[in-house]
Design goal:
Chain lengths: ~350, ~350
DNA sequence: TGTTAGCACTCTTTTATCTTGAGTGCTAAT
DNA sequence: ATTAGCACTCAAGATAAAAGAGTGCTAACA
């Protein structure tokens, strides 16, 4: 079911206009603003066709048309202009990253704020997934009887810690020895392979501590994954700027959805193996996001994907700009994060 | 300027009513609901007096009265009923903490969510201030040329890390040796005294590395303080429940204020040396919180204050309940956190 | 056959007007 | 000092009318 050139042009004009105005666009206004040379009657006919094909909807008779999810999908797939950011905007963006030296997670958290500020949408940044990172240090620090803190440090300059139960008769010296063994044996191993390696190499030694070892491995695994608390969310309030959220109840629902970290987390996790994703309206599985679009991108260092970040906005978001911004941030992140990382 | 018994009774009734209804209360309704035995005319006279004294305000003639900040202040100082939580609520609260074993920060972060859920206001929890904690482990992990990650672990089971510049000629062995020295010399020292101690004990040895040492000390100091990213905020959206935020613009302003972490951070920091604080309306320095009240409390372990947490709500918040909940959470936190801490 | 001008019709939005009702302040009586 | 009574005020709700934006359809035109 191909759309001819004219239909495409009209559809595009409608979407562009609607992204700007958020109110149904009529045949007349589109003719002027997009400089289309057909009469409004012709345009009206085409609009009726486009509606029949499911690209447009009418809130009520005698109102203009608004684009459907299907229309946005077409728009995103075929009509993006891929405009790069302006010099100014790039400068602004770079400026944010110039003096960032306080660690990867800190950079990423502020990235969320930067993103939300320059797009005026809601931004999400996942902390790095350490699976592809390399272990640099492992330490068990005794806390109280039966408990210790396990700390890992990777080559990406990220530390992760968690409390772990230890056998009550395990001495601090034993813990220290174990820490050194693990650090030595697994130095520079990818986090995803550390567990395996440990079982093979020291499983036998620690046979008597079987339970502890398996708890430890599990904990290592957990730490290297990006947990639920590792999602930075910023600018949720920005949604209140847009007329679609003038209704306090809608706003409440939206905020409830994004504050529900675990669902956002799952969503981002799912997007994490894609370089770039755009999910429009009802394409979102999340109940509360079905009037929203989500655009995600991957940040990488030395071509190693580390994590995912993205933007949530109303379905009529400015896709062109959002994509440009994400690409700009992607580049900046690659550059900044690189300074924490060594070549393979 | 003392208020007589009757005025107090009436004022209290008005406040109680207004907390419930959020709409101006009139002389008649107050008479019924609070079972006051004076005629509405008498009550009206008293209300006029109370208004003249600054305790009440009238949105417009022919509307009821609403309490002023001054009234809430009086209410909070003299009229709280100090009702404990019900058995049910206590049970619910305890339930949240029953299975929490994944570390102090995690407990605290979820505390923010629990608080916001059971009060239906906005909750803030500051991560622990480590100044009074004792050092358990210190580690410098080399990352790339000129950079290392510094990690501290304290007896409270908290790890903090940050990237630090190191002299380019410093070898991994040197870093490791330094880490051990610091851990050994300062083991079980309060974080607030570690810097001092280091200068005294190894300042001489490291004279050649003067710059590095001072950077290190600074970093230690920073890490032991609660930074701006160490504020967990939850339930901001709850404010949309209340009619005072039915106006989308007000809601936006509020959300902007609390998302501005650093100001919230400063506010909490200021409250951190008080066991309990209640700040009402314009008493708040924060521009955007002048229609809100903030109630904070300290969480402690073994009588050692660790940090601050609190509630932000509209000035007409249910002070009694908020205070009860904060006390309940305070106790639960003390109990749960204790399991991570050793006696002095 | 595709395009367009014209026009009647639809339905939301805006504006104006009226009504209702909760609540007050004041006065006069108790 | 207290209270019943009453005129008055003002926001909020209801109703009605007018305006305006946009459509679909028909008939004329190239």
């Amino acid at each position: 079911m191909e759309l001819d050139q004219r239909k495409l042009q009209i559809l595009r004009a409608i979407i562009d206009e609607y992204i700007l105005s958020a109110s149904p666009v009529g045949s007349k206004s589109i003719r002027q603003s997009a400089d289309l040379n057909w009469s409004s009657a012709t345009i009206r006919n085409e609009m009726a066709d486009l509606e029949a094909l499911g690209y447009l909807a009418q809130p009520h008779t005698s109102a203009g048309r608004i684009p459907s999810d299907k229309a946005y999908r077409l728009y995103v797939n075929q009509m993006l202009s891929h405009a790069a950011l302006s010099q100014e905007e790039l400068k602004l963006l770079n400026g944010y990253y110039r003096n960032r030296i306080d660690g990867i997670e800190s950079v990423l958290r502020s990235t969320a704020h930067v993103l939300s500020e320059i797009t005026h949408y809601t931004a999400i940044v996942m902390m790095p997934d350490l699976a592809t990172n390399r272990l640099r240090h492992f330490q068990l620090v005794p806390l109280t009887e039966g408990k210790a803190l396990s700390v890992i440090v990777t080559d990406a300059g990220v530390a992760r810690d968690s409390v772990i139960d230890i056998p009550p008769d395990m001495t601090p010296d034993e813990l220290e020895a174990l820490s050194r063994t693990i650090t030595r044996r697994c130095y520079n191993c990818r986090m995803s392979t550390v567990g395996e390696k440990l079982i093979k190499e020291i499983g036998a030694e620690l046979k008597s501590r079987g339970d502890f070892l398996s708890a430890l491995l599990e904990r290592l695994d957990e730490s290297s994954q990006t947990g639920m608390n590792m999602v930075e969310l910023a600018g949720a309030r920005n949604m209140l700027r847009y007329p679609e959220y003038n209704d306090v109840n809608k706003a409440k629902t939206f905020l409830a959805t994004v504050e529900q970290r675990d669902s956002i987390y799952r969503m981002m996790k799912k997007a994490s193996n894609m370089e770039f994703t755009i999910t429009i309206g009802r394409e979102n599985e999340q109940e509360g996001l079905q009037d929203c679009s989500v655009v995600t991108a991957t940040y990488r260092v030395n071509d190693m994907p580390l994590g995912t970040f993205g933007i949530i906005g109303p379905t009529r978001m400015d896709y062109n700009r959002v994509i440009s911004v994400l690409q700009g941030v992607q580049q900046n992140l690659a550059y900044v994060l690189q300074s924490y990382l060594k070549e393979d």
